[in-house]
């Protein structure tokens, strides 16, 4: 792309409560990231160098969940400064693994660790971005992959939104001609209710999907729960399957609650 720098769309990559894995999906591109920088102007991407967290941008990719009052103020400012805001990864789209604390008394935990827990700045829950601001698009995964982000940017440059890939992991297994671990080996697998995007990575290695890309479109969690019971899983084990990376997404949260048991 030969456009001068001033004509490039301005892009920011922000981080909240997370492990940085979704940002690493970009950094791991290596030289291909430099090619991408020819198409857009990364004005804020702290892990890559540029820092201007209050810049007004065309696209803001945001990783991480909202866990503190400071997070809440900052995400609102980012929303004001961004024409489009894209949530990337499980933390930003569903609260992430840290949302497991939403099922317990987080301040009680803090009191058991810190002598003055009143100084801990923590919201009652770890929540996705959409609980607080308008999100224009969500890229699910733990972590997302570079193909998702680059695909979004390419579509943006063409003036269109990408299709939300809400197909199930099972469709990716079929495309790769992988035997179903659930049917052929009796391994409890979340693939039937988990959205595609990973390329069926875990089933491709002979193990079960554990739901890192979040709930697929119209997930039949009741049917999968029944199948898990037939495989001998206890109510606690079934609840744990749904209370994983995307535990606070409504579909998985409801399925965990319906599974019963005492697991928190």
Low-confidence stretches: 1-5
The CATH level-2 architecture of the largest domain is identified as 3-Layer(aba) Sandwich
Q: How many structural domains in the coordinates?
A: 2
Q: What is the CATH superfamily classification of the largest domain?
A: NADH:ubiquinone oxidoreductase-like, 20kDa subunit
**Broad structural category:** alpha/beta
Average pLDDT, rounded to a whole number, is 92
Strand content: 5-15%
Main β-sheet, in a few words? 5 strands, parallel
Largest sheet strand order: 2-1-3-4-5
Question: What is the fold-level CATH name, i.e. the topology of the largest domain?
Answer: Rossmann fold
Order of SSEs? EHHEEHEHHEHHHHHHH
Termini separation:
51 Å
Radius of gyration (Å): 20 Å
Please sum up the structure shown:
The chain has 264 residues and is of the alpha/beta class.
Descriptive notes:
This protein has 264 residues and is an alpha/beta fold. It has 2 domains: 5-157, Rossmann fold, CATH 3.40.50; 169-259, no CATH class. Helices cover 35% and strands 11% of the residues. The protein contains 12 helices and 5 strands. Strands 2-1-3-4-5 form a 5-stranded parallel sheet. Strand 3, helix 3 and strand 4 form a beta-alpha-beta unit. Helix 11 packs antiparallel against helix 12. The radius of gyration is 20 Å and the shape is globular. The termini are far apart. Mean pLDDT is 92; it is low at 1-5.
């Amino acid at each position: 792309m030969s456009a001068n720098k001033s004509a490039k769309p301005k892009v920011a990559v922000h981080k909240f409560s997370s492990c940085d894995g979704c940002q690493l999906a970009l950094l791991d591109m290596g030289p291909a990231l430099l090619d991408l920088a020819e198409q857009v102007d990364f004005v804020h991407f702290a892990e890559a160098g540029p820092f201007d967290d209050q810049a007004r941008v065309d696209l803001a990719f945001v990783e991480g969940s909202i866990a503190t009052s400071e997070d809440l103020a900052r995400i609102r400012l980012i929303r004001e400064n961004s024409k489009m805001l894209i949530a990337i990864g499980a933390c930003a789209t569903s609260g992430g693994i840290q949302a497991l604390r939403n099922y317990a008394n987080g301040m009680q935990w803090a009191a058991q660790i810190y002598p003055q827990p009143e100084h801990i700045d923590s919201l009652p829950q770890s929540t996705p971005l959409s609980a607080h601001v308008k999100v224009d698009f969500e890229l699910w995964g733990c972590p997302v992959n570079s193909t998702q982000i680059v695909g979004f940017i390419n579509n943006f440059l063409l003036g269109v939104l990408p299709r939300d890939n809400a197909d199930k992991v099972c469709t990716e297994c079929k495309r790769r001609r992988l035997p179903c671990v659930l049917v052929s080996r009796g391994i409890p697998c979340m693939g039937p209710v988990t959205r595609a995007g990973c390329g069926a990575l875990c089933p491709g290695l002979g193990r079960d999907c554990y739901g890192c890309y979040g709930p697929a479109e119209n997930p039949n969690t009741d049917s999968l729960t029944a199948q898990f019971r037939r495989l001998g899983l206890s109510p606690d084990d079934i609840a744990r399957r749904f209370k994983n990376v995307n535990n606070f997404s409504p579909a998985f949260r409801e399925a965990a609650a319906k599974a019963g048991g005492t697991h928190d």
